[in-house]
Write a structure and sequence with these properties.
Length: 218
């Protein structure tokens, strides 16, 4: 078994966090790096990440887990850090131009011909989903879930534990964090830290459907 597969085998969703555990500055930076390096279609990066490591910041996020979603409140407040993965509500030319400028700054283009080919391809797909298929929010949200998967495996590699959550009040989260004014929509919360000793999910065996159900050899 390779180290990567071993990490996948051992990773689990934490249900109870140790509230005494805090993240080091290096661990927080590693989390940011994992998210920043996540792949996306045409390198569109249609996301933004809100990160809370203080009680005050976690309390703001936890406002969206009150009432019906109270079952997730402790997972937010007791975690060492909480990330709200947000998706852009639009992907316009100004944003794709910013990506092209950054790619050029980072030395991605050997010449202008390659630059225009990449830029044109990205704008083609952005326009396709925005103006023709008209599913741009859904298309961009799918990219954010790629970042989610990258984060879950990445933090497991660091020896940290995570709990992804879609169970929160989207309107409250948007209002509390001022997301609409920023052109963002909340997509998923991920709490991070170390599992408590009484986390019932830590010792549960991993369960997945068998290969004969999931795969078809062509």
């Amino acid at each position: 078994m390779t180290p990567y597969i071993d990490t996948l085998q051992k990773r689990y969703t934490t249900k109870i966090f140790d509230p005494t555990r805090t993240l080091s500055a290096d661990e927080v930076q590693a989390i940011k790096t994992i998210l920043r390096l996540s792949p996306s279609s045409t390198n569109s990066q249609p996301w933004h990440f809100m990160i809370a490591t203080t009680p005050e910041g976690k309390d703001r996020i936890a406002q969206a887990t009150e009432g019906f979603y109270q079952f997730n409140e402790a997972k937010v407040k007791n975690a060492s850090a909480v990330v709200v993965l947000c998706t852009r509500t639009d992907i316009d030319k100004a944003y794709t131009d910013m990506i092209t400028t950054q790619e050029e700054k980072d030395g991605r283009y050997p010449n202008d011909e390659v630059k225009e080919t990449v830029r044109g391809g990205r704008e083609f797909f952005a326009n396709l989903h925005r103006d023709q298929i008209k599913d741009a929010p859904h298309w961009m949200e799918k990219q954010t879930f790629i970042a989610l998967g990258n984060l879950l495996v990445g933090v497991a590699h660091l020896g940290l534990h995570a709990c992804p959550m879609e169970g929160f009040d989207y309107e409250v989260m948007s209002e509390t964090l001022g997301l609409k004014a920023k052109g963002l929509a909340p997509t998923v919360i991920v709490s991070l830290g170390i599992s408590a000793e009484n986390d019932f999910n830590a010792g549960a065996p991993k369960s997945r459907l068998p290969e004969e159900v999931l795969f078809t050899e062509l």
